[in-house]
Specification:
The protein is built from 7 helices and 15 strands. With 318 residues, the protein is α/β, with parallel strands linked by helices.
Length: 318
C-alpha cells in the first residue's frame, strides 16, 4: 500500500493546484451563500440540564485543561463574560433548533461543566480503536450528560488525521436500567490533540494546511495550537451532539456521514470566508492573536460558523 502514497499525494496536489484559478470565484460565492436546510428526522434532541464531563486520556498540563474547561463554562456564562461577542452568544444559534420543534415536552437545554477524570497512565495503551473510545467515554456519568474523551498528542486513534479530527456518537448505557423497555443510551464525543500528528488538518487556521491555498497561520489566542484545535473541533461536535445525539435529529445527507449544525459550514469562522481564508476575525491588540469569541476568565476562542435554521445560512459571530 505504501507504494501508492506518493501517487495519491501528487493527485491531491494537482487537484489543489487546479483550484487556484477559481479562488476569486470562491470569494464571490462566499458573499452569495446558498441556503442549506438541515432536515429534522423526528428523533430526540438533548434537553434539560446536561453535564459535560471531560475524560482526559494521556498527558495534559493543568493550563491545557483549563483552556477547555473555561470554554465549556463559557457556553452558558454570558453574564460573567463582559466582552462581546461571547461564546454564549455563539451557542444561542443552537437554541433556534429547539424552537423549531413543536412538542409539549420541554425542549430547553442547559449545559454545565461536570466532572473531570484523569487517565494519565494510558490505561488502554497509546493506540486506541473506536471501541476503546466508547470504553473511555463510559467512565463518565451516563445520565443527563455528554462524556467528552480528549486524547493527548502522543496517542494514536483509529482514523485520526487520515479521516477525522474527532467524532461524536452514542453508546448503550451500562449503568442504568431500561427506560420504557428500551436500553438507554448516552452521548459521547472524542477529540484528539493534533499538535504533533496533523495540525495542518485539525488545527487550521492556526497551522498551515497540508493542502490547498497556503497562507501564514494565524496566532493562537491561548498560545497552544494543539488545544486551539481541540476547542474548535469540540465546539463543532458539541453542536452536532445536542442537535443530533442519536442519529435521528437534525442533519442532511447520509446518517453515516451527516452534515450537522457546524459541519455544514466547514472552514468558516468569519464573514467573507472562502477556501484557505477563515474570514474577517477580531485581533487581540496585545498579542496579535485571532479570535471571534470571548469567554470566562478573559479567554478568547475561535469558534466555527453554525448553520442558522431560521435563515438556512452559515452564521458567524463576526
Amino acid at each position: 500500500m505504501a507504494s501508492f502514497v506518493p501517487t495519491q499525494c501528487l493527485l491531491q496536489l494537482l487537484f489543489v493546484a487546479s483550484l487556484f484559478p477559481f479562488i476569486s470565484a470562491a470569494r464571490r460565492l462566499a458573499q452569495d451563500q446558498q441556503p442549506l436546510l438541515l432536515q429534522y428526522h423526528n428523533g430526540p434532541l438533548l434537553s434539560g440540564k446536561i453535564s459535560i464531563n471531560l475524560i482526559w486520556y494521556g498527558k495534559f498540563k493543568p493550563s491545557q485543561r483549563a483552556i477547555v474547561s473555561d470554554f465549556i463554562t463559557s457556553l452558558s456564562s454570558s453574564k460573567t463574560t463582559p466582552h462581546q461577542p461571547s461564546v454564549a452568544a455563539w451557542w444561542n444559534t443552537i437554541d433556534k433548533y429547539y424552537l423549531l420543534i413543536k412538542s409539549k415536552k420541554s425542549t430547553s437545554l442547559g449545559l454545565s461543566l461536570g466532572t473531570q477524570i484523569l487517565d494519565e497512565n494510558y490505561s488502554l495503551g497509546k493506540s486506541l480503536t473506536s471501541r476503546n473510545l466508547k470504553q473511555l467515554a463510559a467512565k463518565g456519568q451516563q445520565s443527563n450528560a455528554i462524556n467528552v474523551v480528549l486524547t493527548s498528542s502522543d496517542v494514536a486513534v483509529e482514523g485520526f488525521c487520515s479521516s477525522r479530527c474527532g467524532t461524536h456518537g452514542s453508546s448503550p448505557s451500562s449503568k442504568t436500567a431500561k427506560v420504557n423497555g428500551k436500553i438507554s443510551k448516552f452521548a459521547y464525543i472524542w477529540v484528539g490533540n493534533s499538535e504533533t500528528q496533523c495540525p495542518g488538518q485539525c488545527a487550521w487556521p492556526f497551522h498551515q494546511p497540508i493542502y490547498g491555498p497556503q497562507s501564514p497561520p494565524l496566532s493562537a489566542p491561548n498560545n497552544d495550537v494543539g488545544m486551539e484545535g481541540i476547542v474548535m473541533n469540540l465546539a463543532s461536535l458539541l453542536a452536532g451532539t445536542v442537535t443530533n445525539p442519536f442519529g435521528n435529529g437534525y442533519y442532511q445527507g447520509s446518517a453515516e456521514a451527516p452534515l450537522e449544525a457546524a459541519s455544514a459550514c466547514p472552514g468558516i469562522y468569519g464573514k467573507g470566508a472562502y477556501p484557505g481564508y477563515a474570514g474577517k476575525l477580531l485581533e487581540d491588540p496585545t498579542t496579535g492573536a485571532s479570535y471571534n469569541a470571548n469567554g470566562v476568565n478573559g479567554r478568547k476562542y475561535l469558534l466555527p460558523a453554525l448553520l442558522d435554521p431560521s435563515t438556512s445560512t452559515c452564521s458567524t459571530l463576526v
